[in-house]
Design a protein that fits this description.
Length: 231
């Protein structure tokens, strides 16, 4: 018997929340509907979820704040933002937090289902593929399975996506990691916002690796990235 994926919805519009909840249940998801960020965060701490769907504009706690608080305790939970606005600045802010996708209202339920299934498929396949890969990156030790990046006595826990990107860079060290390939694998596509989201992750990885001046992530315009470790 297949276990239903558990989805946490935070949506203050009662009608939309009900419609989304019922539609997702029809497609065999287990749905927990909340009316604001505070309610959603409290419920999150009591249950394990496979995916979150968060409205941005909510009373008591907005979707961005909710996502940040969840990220503090779980770096891997995939989530989708719902918004009534299609402003680029909001989308970039969402992707900076680590959003997996962004859906503009009015919501096309069939499109939402397709996006949810794609995200869950990537998340499950990535988890299944995780193995005892360990890499040396200059002075850094990278434990992919446990998502740890270590230098001297300092340890950083990476998010799953950060770990996946760094693993891909390590596996192609000294060679170009094709941007489109990694975007398709981790984001499901290479549209503008996915590219911007990946750029944010690359920026963060560069910061994490900055304590060894011999380690560089080089951008090859129009092609991808190279992890270079000088001798």
């Amino acid at each position: 018997m297949t276990t239903k994926a558990k989805i946490l919805i935070a949506e203050d519009d009662k009608n939309l929340g009900y419609v989304l909840s019922e539609y997702l249940k029809m497609h065999h998801f287990e749905v927990h509907l909340t009316r604001n960020g505070v309610e959603a965060l409290n419920l999150y701490h009591k249950h394990d979820f496979d995916l979150g769907i968060f409205d941005i504009m909510m009373p008591e706690m907005d979707g961005f704040t909710l996502a940040k608080k969840i990220r503090e305790v779980n770096a891997d939970l995939p989530f989708i933002f719902l918004t009534a606005k299609a402003l680029m600045i909001d989308k970039l802010k969402g992707f900076n937090i680590g959003a997996d996708d962004y859906v503009v209202k009015p919501v096309d339920e069939e499109e939402l289902i397709a996006r949810i299934k794609a995200i869950l498929k990537r998340s499950n396949s990535n988890a299944t593929a995780a193995s005892n890969h360990k890499f040396e990156i200059g002075k850094y030790h990278f434990d992919f399975k446990n998502q740890k990046l270590i230098i001297d006595k300092e340890q950083r826990i990476l998010t799953f996506k950060e770990a996946e990107i760094l693993k891909a860079l390590c596996e192609s060290k000294g060679q170009i990691l094709d941007r489109k390939t990694i975007l398709k694998r981790l984001w499901g596509g290479s549209d503008y916002f996915n590219r911007k989201s990946m750029d944010v992750f690359i920026y963060k990885l560069r910061k994490y690796l900055s304590k060894d001046s011999k380690v560089k992530i080089i951008n090859v315009h129009g092609k991808g990235f190279i992890l270079e470790v000088s001798v």
